[in-house]
Amino acid sequence: MEGRILVKDRYFVPYIPYERLEKAIDAVAERINHDFKNFDGTPIILCVLNGSILFTGELMKRLNFPCEFTSVRLSSYEGTLSTGVTRKVLGLTSSIKGRTVIVVEDIVDTGKTITDLHALLLDAGAADVKICTMLLKPEVYKKDLKLDYVAMEIENRFIVGFGLDYDQLGRNSKDIYILDSKTEEKTAMKHFLIFGPPGAGKGTQAAKLIDRFGLRHVSTGDLLRREIAAGTSLGLQAKSLIDKGELVPDKVVEGMIASELDQHPDVKGFIFDGFPRTTAQAEHLDAMLAARCQQVDAVLSLMIPDETVFERIRHRAEIENRVDDTKPEIIRNRIATYHGKTEPVISYYKGKGVYREIDGLGSIDEVFDRVSAVMEEYL
Ligand code: IMP
Ligand code: MG
Predict the structure, then answer these.
(1) Nearest-angstrom CA–CA distance, 190 and 379
(2) What are the tens digits of pLDDT across the range 276-296?
(3) Are 259 and 273 members of one domain?
(4) The ligand 1 atom nearest the CA atom of 113
(5) If pLDDT is split at 50, 70 and 90, which confidence band does 187 have?
(6) What is the pLDDT of residue 335?
(7) Which of 7, 88, 105, 149 has CB atoms 3.0–4.6 Å from 133's, for a disulfide?
């Protein structure tokens, strides 16, 4: 059996080798042969496509009594539960009226599929319906319907291979693989955005949060400065744009974020500061994270009244002797720009239900306690 395999966008590790499946199928076939040895009539083996295709083949060649074969597919759910309409059997060409049918399934999970099918086959006139499944997840199966033949019981985890799929892929594997919990832990990485007007203390809080929670702080401003200092081609490109007073294009910023994500696969999560600044960037971040089976878990928005922002910017400008920033109209303009630019991004995240407002007034420690309390809900 191969080691870890990638199916679409998820890693799976070896779980049941083909040799063990063969033994389990031998045993279940023997039980069916025993039960049908003196059977008066010809049962129909009914393969439930697509998942049972390999199992049915293996099982059939071990059956030593006369039997017919047919296959069906189940339509996906139709209508709502309240109407009672669930599924339809597709492709049942041979008549099953008055016949004994042995349904061959790949896996029974909650049992919804198999109980629906059982009822539908009796409705279609079957005299008797026996169930044979290769796999059963006993922890989740809560139906009363008796499962006549179960080749193997497994734990309640997601598997692929030997006919079973993950998003239609992986059916052609001879062995069965299980979702890699180690990779899944990594994909459980958490992502936070820290928002707030200039002077809200985002950088200060982010620095304390990464220490406390073992996260990585990503500030697009810092990343750009680092690239420029290192004299990389990206840095040179960015510097020439900044020197001309132009914005660094989204693509450049997004490229930097992607490489940050790829370079630090082992951290518990990230705190993004200064990104995304536009809804286009927010959508792109979502796509980048989705490709890694991750998402933005929470947007932490430090709330400061405009008057306080005004005072903080003016105070900082005085200390740092930035004459321009002490002019009231310039400060007001910066505050207005902040609201105008971030408002759409805020409503984007509100729409996703991840936007959290946090009172940003008070001492650094008071604010830190409030932000930490929110983050603890996610970590
Ligand atoms: P149930 O209706 O909940 O019993 O689900 C049965 C169907 O769910 C199977 O026929 C499979 O298509 C699918 N299924 C359940 N568990 C798994 C799994 O671990 N891997 C792949 N498909 C599964
Ligand atoms: Mg199936």
Answers:
(1) 8
(2) 988 889 999 998 888 877 889
(3) no
(4) 2
(5) low
(6) 86
(7) 105
Q: Which atom of ligand 1 is nearest to the CA of 141?
A: 4
What pLDDT score was predicted for residue 231? Answer: 87
Residue 88 pLDDT: 81
Residue nearest to atom 15 of ligand 1 (CA): 109
- Same domain? For 108 and 248 the reply is no
Token pair listed for 346: 């805020």
CATH number at residue 152: 3.40.50.2020
Q: Is the domain of 162 the same as that of 231?
A: no
pLDDT at position 369: 96
- By residue range, what is the domain housing residue 351? 188-215+267-375
CA 142 to centroid of ligand 1, rounded, Å:
14
How would you classify residue 41: left for phi > 0, otherwise alpha for psi between -120 and 50, otherwise beta? left
Q: Let me know whether 177 and 197 are in one domain.
A: no
Q: Are residues 201 and 125 in the same domain?
A: no
Instruction: Tell me how many domains the chain contains.
Output: 3
Six-digit token string for 67: 């039997």
Tell whether the model's pLDDT for residue 324 goes beyond 80. Answer: no
**Res 79: pLDDT:** 43
Choosing from 237, 266, 295, the residue where a domain stops is 266
Domain boundary pick from 207, 238, 266 = 266
Question: Ligand 1 pocket by C-beta < 6 Å: which residues?
Answer: 51, 106-114, 158-160, 164
Cβ neighbours for 173, distance < 8 A, ≥ 6 positions apart:
5, 160, 161, 162
If asked whether residues 366 and 260 sit together in one domain, one would say: no
pLDDT in tens, 50-107: 999 999 999 999 999 999 999 999 876 544 443 444 578 888 877 999 999 999 999 9
3-state secondary structure of 309: helix
Q: From the alpha carbon of 165, which atom of ligand 1 is closest?
A: 21
26 and 113 part of one domain: yes
Rounded to an integer, what distance in angstroms lies between the CA atom of residue 104 and that of residue 134?
8
Asked if 371 and 209 touch (Cβ cutoff 8 Å), the reply is yes
Per the rule left: phi > 0, alpha: psi between -120 and 50, beta: everything else, 161 is left
